[in-house]
Design brief:
mainly beta; 9 strands; 12% helix; 1 helix; five-stranded mixed β-sheet
């Protein structure tokens, strides 16, 4: 059978060829930082590993009692991989939880939560 070497070569070429990357927008950095203590209430800024679609993303902020804190609608920064949401209320000292979800331009969805503390 002479086609066997050709078949093996074809199989090797398929297995060793580069495959497209199906990445997700992973959270790289947050301001305020994950688990940090801050002295002023900043806007919530989330930087991702790839561009995201702000219309399909969300950021929520809640206090230690679970009460929702009003935020502005998440907007994309110039780099398209960063979302910013303004805090629309005066925050009292305490621990806050940020809950987010992001949809990257390739339509993959990621989500997560983290906490930060506002010092008196």
């Amino acid at each position: 059978m002479q086609f066997r070497p050709a078949l093996l070569l074809l199989a090797a070429a398929v297995l060793l060829s580069p495959l497209p990357a199906f990445a997700h927008a992973q959270l790289l950095k947050a301001v305020p930082g994950v688990g940090t203590t801050v002295t002023t209430a900043p806007s919530i800024t989330l930087a991702f590993s790839e561009p995201v679609e702000p219309a399909f993303c969300g950021i929520a902020l809640s206090d230690a009692a679970g009460k929702t804190v009003p935020l502005g609608k998440p907007a994309s920064a110039a780099d398209k991989a960063t979302l910013v949401a303004a805090v629309k209320a005066r925050l009292a000292p305490g621990t806050y939880t940020v809950t987010w979800h992001a949809v990257s331009v390739d339509t993959h969805r990621t989500q997560g939560t983290f906490a930060f503390t506002l010092a008196p």
